[in-house]
Structure to design on (482 residues):
């Protein structure tokens, strides 16, 4: 399977002229990319730089650890002249411009030195290489997202790469004044994780660097990029045990459900009709092969309040991104028990945004995977790439509009070099729905799958034919935090 950037370059959903000549020196970090930039080559180079940066960081940690170890202290007592020479050599390697350029980290002495370097705005060799790696990702993203190469966006990304926060704020203000908040956000959304990583790596705050290094390595950060707060904080902000109550559909939802069938567009439309105020839907299907299967539809986040009485709030969204045991998953587990879904039943989970994350979190729960046979997880516009189902036979299908900000919050944006497992089916496209949050709406995904990306619709429907049959039950449930 190709990465999103490779897919976008090779098979764009809308006509895009993408030359493939090799980049010139002007395409190096901080420069303006010439026509003919090879995105795949830039991504490959960014991987090499990222590996070098992580290796240099590890070398700094090992040197710092060696200097502060008790063994070195013992040797210094026995052979003081040797120890002095070794300490001087290590210090030169850690601080000299021909070495790691103030690359100490790890252990109490190393961390104190690193904090001092942050506060004095030193840029170690590892950080310099990491910054160049992120810059190359940004250059690669501009190939398939040409708005990133506009003068206003280029001013912002160049300022972030340079670590000039004042100029970055000015550039961001100018971008918002020209485009408005939503279009400005959409313009930078393909590289939002890279920009956040640059902000965390190049500021004076010594406790938020973890976000940047984890993003560079292709993981999902467990801290925020600005203050460095750990994800465990969310556990205390989202502590509800979860509750599920049967409810009746309103007239609009009831009308939509009369046309429901085993089709990805139909599922997305049903999720849109459920809204994002706590409703989910459990469907029972008498399949054509004689088996009875279930489908659980999970909508996404309500952006009205930071926190509300349902699991579908902003706090729940961040919790679902970083953890698997959330209020939403706990409420969904109780729903399955309350509905009396028989043990061993085959179950397909379909979710949009936070709902897609919750679907993956449920599939990742060994207890849920042991109780039910989760055959499919379909995530629509969801940042799920760091999550894995407990049952390796679960078919994971991810649908991504690359103008959508949300799917890239797992650290794997359009220019990320990291790929999903080969057993997954990821279908990504660029469509006419540009502005966020419109590009994230269920209707935008439904329209795309009925239009120019209808071949993706056909592909998904081929993968879920086991659920063809007659719908014999549509039961909405209201989920509450407690």
């Amino acid at each position: 399977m190709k990465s999103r950037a490779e897919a976008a370059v090779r098979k764009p959903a809308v006509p895009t002229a993408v030359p493939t000549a090799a980049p010139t020196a002007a395409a190096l970090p901080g420069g303006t990319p010439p026509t003919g930039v090879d995105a795949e080559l830039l991504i490959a180079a960014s991987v090499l730089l990222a590996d070098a940066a992580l290796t240099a960081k590890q070398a700094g940690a090992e040197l710092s650890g060696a200097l502060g170890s008790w063994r070195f202290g013992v040797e210094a007592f026995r052979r003081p002249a040797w120890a002095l020479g070794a300490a001087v050599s290590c210090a030169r390697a850690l601080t000299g411009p021909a070495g790691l350029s103030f690359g100490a980290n790890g252990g109490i002495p190393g961390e104190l030195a690193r904090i001092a370097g942050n506060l004095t705005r030193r840029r170690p060799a590892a950080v310099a290489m990491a910054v160049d790696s992120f810059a190359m990702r940004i250059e690669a993203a501009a190939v398939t997202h040409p708005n990133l190469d506009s003068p206003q966006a280029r001013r912002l990304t160049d300022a972030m790469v340079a670590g000039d926060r004042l100029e970055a704020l000015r550039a961001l203000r100018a971008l918002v004044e020209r485009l408005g908040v939503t279009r400005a956000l959409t313009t930078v959304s393909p590289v939002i994780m890279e920009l956040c990583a640059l902000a965390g790596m190049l500021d004076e705050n010594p406790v938020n660097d973890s976000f940047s290094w984890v993003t560079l390595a292709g993981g999902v950060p467990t801290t925020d990029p600005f203050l460095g707060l750990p994800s465990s904080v969310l556990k205390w902000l989202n502590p509800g045990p979860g509750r599920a109550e049967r409810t009746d559909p309103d007239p609009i939802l009831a009308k939509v459900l009369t046309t429901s069938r085993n089709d990805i567009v139909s599922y997305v439309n049903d999720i849109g009709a459920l809204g994002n105020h706590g409703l989910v839907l459990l469907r029972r299907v008498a399949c054509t092969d004689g088996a009875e299967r279930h489908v659980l539809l999970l909508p996404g986040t309500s952006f009205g309040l930071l926190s509300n009485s349902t699991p579908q709030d902003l706090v729940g969204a961040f919790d679902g991104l970083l953890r698997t045991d959330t209020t939403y998953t706990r409420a969904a587990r109780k729903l399955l028990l309350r509905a009396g879904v028989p043990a061993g039943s085959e179950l397909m989970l379909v979710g949009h945004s936070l709902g897609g994350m919750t679907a993956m979190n449920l599939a990742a729960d060994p207890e849920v995977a042991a109780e039910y046979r989760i055959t499919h997880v379909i995530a629509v516009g969801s940042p799920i790439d760091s999550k894995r189902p407990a049952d390796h036979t679960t078919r994971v299908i991810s649908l991504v509009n690359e103008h959508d900000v949300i799917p890239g919050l797992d650290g794997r944006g359009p220019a990320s070099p990291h790929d999903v497992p080969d057993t997954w089916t990821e279908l990504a496209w660029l469509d006419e729905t540009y502005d966020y949050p419109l590009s994230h709406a269920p209707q935008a995904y439904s329209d795309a799958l009925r239009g120019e990306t209808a071949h993706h619709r056909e592909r998904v429907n081929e993968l879920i034919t086991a659920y063809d049959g007659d719908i014999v039950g549509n039961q909405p449930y209201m989920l509450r935090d407690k």
Remarks:
- The beta strands are 243-246, 279-287, 292-298, 346-352, 373-380, 395-401, 425-429, 469-480.
- Confidence is low (pLDDT under 50) at residues 5-34.
- The radius of gyration is 25 Å.
